[in-house]
Structure prediction request, 115 residues.
Amino acid sequence: MKMRLDFIGVKNQSIEHFQNSFLNRQAENKQLQIKEENELVTKDHIKTIASSMNSFIEPLQTNLKFEYHEELNEYYVTVINPQTNETIREIPPKKMLDMYAAMVGFMGILVDERV
Prediction:
């Protein structure tokens, strides 16, 4: 009977060790999640930064503007002729961004239909 009790004691210790290890991992994951949430940049924050960059660049007459592509939620740069207010160049080209957005949409349709 004594041998049986020793085995139960070892078993209980390993369960306690497992529970402590699990709780420590949960605490570490929670700390990482809080850290990641604090480091995330919001869409509004990026828009205010882009508009402040536009305001900063305007007096320098560099003829650059940061434009927002609605479908991709990305920014691109336009080079503008200040005399005619005509777009000289877009980096990356808006047409390419539009094509990419269309491809992403088509891929979404294909994946949705297969599932």
